[in-house]
């Protein structure tokens, strides 16, 4: 018995001297996290006061396997996400289990199938855009303003999670006219002083290209010394992305309600419905000098049902002989407050952020946090939708809008995509919001100028620029004549209008 107390393997010595043992008995180790440096440690049993030691590689791998099983279910469900599974390539799990943010959806599909007769001309890497800068770009003049917009209804500013309002479906007409089909741009193209034409959405997409993850594509059409940026027939370019930059984006199957394509369509409908619902149904309407160019002057019914949108054709001087006309959109006019000048017109761009299921993307439950911790909700959206928010901000700055209004729209039931409620609103000045999200407008203008310079050196013809679905690269192709003739015929056979939202 005298020697038993000195035997390091005896129970008496183990209970008396609680040094770090490395046994592998069942139930002896417990998993845990700790440490000032954020490392992972193992708890040495249930003995009070026992110290912790760093986890071994084997223990860390076992813990990660259990985390994946808890997240995706049994091995039959989560096995597909491992190396060589549906995410393909070398897998998207870094050594140590960290998630690769830039490859968050594995082998995503391209926005358009590349044909054999397309000639690859250039690959523009996003790393080349980081050092670009074009400061002091200002509007040269507003060529024309068309359409009519209603005034914003300030009663929606008082909405909160306790007084939510149902989102109402808009049954009017929404025009989605491309650059080449715009009659105003066709007339402006005859001016010798202007040589580049596009819309605010197209310009914002190019300027925010380094922030994008999903694939997208645009057409660049050279006619003589003019350059037109256009949308490909049959493209989903105007669809609003959801959780594009999230670390863990939704990856459901095509038939699931939370499939990325269905979420984008739902978000697009929500934006149209929200932007029209928050306007004053009765009262004055702000009319621009010119009528809406996309309404048939003889069709009074269509004129009454058309969505409230104002079009501002603004010209920008990018230097080196590049003068660009951008068709910009504003959604509303803000009514003057008591302490503001009554004659000053303040234009507003209205957008909607939507919550489909707070359990996805490490999201924040809006109904619990929106009233008390709105900053946390906005921070979560900046993490999951940084590209979308950047494009909205750039578009509002280009349009010369005084305010950028956000609405927070959520599903009534996470499993129902047809009913939504408005939980609140928030507004920013576009330039202030750009500073908050670290959006460098000088760099954005520099990216746009770089892309324009490339196409201005090309021969007249049709070109396509496509963001690679899995790499931070833009591919530029030279297209043959009538490359999308079949798509144009299919568009002509349809009614040409997007379905009403919600």
From TrEMBL:
Transmembrane segments: none annotated. Keywords: Cytoplasm, Initiation factor, Protein biosynthesis, RNA-binding. One of its GO terms (molecular function) is RNA binding. InterPro entries: eIF3d. Residues 85-94 have a biased composition (Gly residues). Coiled coil: none annotated. It comes from the Eukaryota. Residues 51-108 are annotated as: Disordered. This is Eukaryotic translation initiation factor 3 subunit D. It comes from Mesocestoides corti.
